[in-house]
Hints:
The complex is a heterodimer of chains A (387) and B (423). Helix content of chain A is 32%, strand content 16%. With 387 residues, chain A is an alpha/beta fold. Chain A has one domain (7-386). The longest helix of chain A is centred in the first third of the chain and has 22 residues, at 7-28. The radius of gyration of chain A is 20 Å and the shape is globular. Chain A starts with 6 loop residues before the first helix and ends with a helix. Chain B is globular and about 75 Å long. In chain B, strand 8, helix 3 (138-150) and strand 9 form a beta-alpha-beta unit. Chain B is an alpha/beta fold and 423 residues long. Chain B contains 9 helices and 26 strands. Classes of the chains: A alpha/beta (387), B alpha/beta (423).
Amino acid sequence: MNTSFTRRNLLAGTAGSMILGRNAWAAEAPTASVALSKCNSYGAEVLPMLSAMFDQIGGLGRLVKGKTVAIKVNLTGGPESRMGYLPIGLTTWTHPVVIGATIHLLGKAGARRIRLLESPWKSAEPLEEHMIGAGWDLSHFTNSASNVEFENTNFLGFGKKYARFNVPKGGHLFPAFDLNHSYADCDVFVSIAKLKEHLTAGVTMSMKNCFGITPCTIYGDNAPIDEPGQVPLGGRFPIHSGSRQPSKCSPGEHDPATPRDGGYRVPRCVADLVAARPIHLAIIDGIESQTTVETVSRNATYVKPHVLVAGLNPVCVDAVGAAVMGFDPMADRGKVPFEKCDSTLRLAEELGVGTRDLRRIEVIGEKISNVVCDYRKASATARTRRG
Amino acid sequence: MDSVNLVPFQWPAEWHSAQQLKLLANTPVNCLFCDNDAVSAAARHAGLTVIDPKSASPSPLAEVKWDAPPAPRVIGGLVWPSVRMSPGARRDTAQAGPTGAPWIDSNAWVAHLARVRAKGAPLWLSFGAAQKKSTIDTSAYLTALVDSAAAGARWIVSLDPAISKGLTQGNADATQTWAAITRMLRFFEDNRRWAAWEPWGALGVLSTYKGDHEYFGQEVLNLSARRNLHYRVLDRTAPPPERPLDHLRAILYVDPEVPTPAWKAALASFAQKGGQLILPKQLAAEFPAEATLPCPVAGYQSRTCGRGRISAATRDWDDPYFLAQDAHSLVSRMHDPVRIFNARSLWEHYSESADSRSAVLQLVGFSRGSYDSVSIRAARPWRSATLHTAGSAPVRLNTVTVDGKVEYHLPDFSNFAALEFQS
């Protein structure tokens, strides 16, 4: 028997024990209740519905009273794009009514300051301008609570320096991230996502929403090699492809020899991000949405799942969201919706963020089976109709 | 004939006979650039105006004699308006600009700047097949024509050899292309009123656009148009306009050079009355400013100045693309006269009549295909909006309420559409 230990054996052994360890963490991953509600429109019903849901998960007061709250919204892609004539909030972006209602309820619960955050694609424009570009009325947010602020987190922004976030348990892809100060200068972090599929990561909900917290001045195309750029000059393609490392001032990935495949990398990066920058409140806008992809696209189909999902654990919330879309949250690479990628839910679970096992998640409100909107069936039907 | 009404056409080198004048019959063309004596004589006899190309040769923008007697200013050194294609890339693959949006070559900014300098003289833009790197099809001709016309200028219609020959031989494709060109020419003649309306925008862009400031000043105009930032050109080589600048919300002072006393007084007064002055870093100390204000745009410091504000850069401006973006953010998209969705490679031209009771939004398409699902949201509450496209009767559009705001949903169109608003 050959007993010599090669570097390959050693790495395989290490990886094996890490997987074993991670499976153990997964079994112990925390759980939290998830509120699931039917909500038929973006009308007046959203506010009382969300209020009731927040009560169902323990109330906002204990979470936010006297605190600074940062909210990462999902405003991916250009603000002037639409699926047909539909406003982008109906299909692709978190709807402004859901954001406004959340701000109002956070303010009412005593939040001292509320900061809306997003990193608009390739841009250092003020976040307000990105929203105005979509035709949004900002007073809808600023009048919903006092001390509402906005920040584009795609670069240094109003901060003096980037804040470093270490990934607990080492991380799958990155050991740490350097992010805009707003992700550190907050007591409570909220992710408000849209219930969507994702071309690279299978699904995008409260966790994948956080992919956009990475500043493109460090992690994006054309970021300087050594130091962060002043403004973003490209998108996050390098995280997808592994074509380059972040600017050297920030920690590089663990192992540049791992697959340079978006389906491997993006889910790992997202899991690392949500472990490093924990989400305290996860909300998914699934009142109206789109199938197939995460951005405005002719390949997408407009759907109306008519649901809102909220909870204190993003993995649990996303597991419920995945089930609402007709997917099995326990599925992994090779199975719908992760045909070509790893499951972000599983990877986050392995980092101990939360469980994706619906048997361990208390769903309050609607039964999942009553509100399932099968995204794959919806897009297949639409394709057939289009011929 | 008054030169304002001349519709110029470059007589093709492939056309040798006065017989070919019949190809211009029943078209809006009434002015030839022609050096063929026989053709010129016949054209004059037929009532056309003939210009000897040697007497009106095109000049690059920087060399145009603006103080010459009233006559069309013929500008050359231009591009063929189009989406720039990647050299060696897959067929029909467009080059991307810094935004990822397709890179568009347009002469609109030249026309806007020339319009200020020409003081009412007609503007004729001269470019032809030599400036077009790829195939010139019907769509390319229409884009060339509307890019000039929507900016208030006229393209000296110039046909490439293939279509010129094709027309003399009765080729069906060439005939169809020529029909499309003349239909579009007719359309703009029928709507000539729009050319007299003033381009409207919340931002004034102030530069000499000359010498050391030529490249940067002109590129700011070009790249502002590229992001559909509506601007008005202010020329620092001329004294401040007699009309107060109050109709603007902000003025971007591009050149890092101290203004003349007259301009300095005009700008200070503009800020005192409530306007925003956007200054290069070098001029921050030139204007009295008071309390510091929060500034949403990184790289700027805002201070009060009377009822207005001064936003001075804290770093050097080295990229006109980012300067145009910063200026748009500082003045805010909130003050755009229109918001357009699914614009893709559409360029907007917005102008208002002198009495402000009418406005027109002209949409110039740079893509070959048709535009679908384009929505328009106007800042002003107009009484009506009528859609004009070449070859079709005007259509009054119904309003659609989206997110509590009035919008107009345009039907599919190609190359060009105009939305005329009435109060």
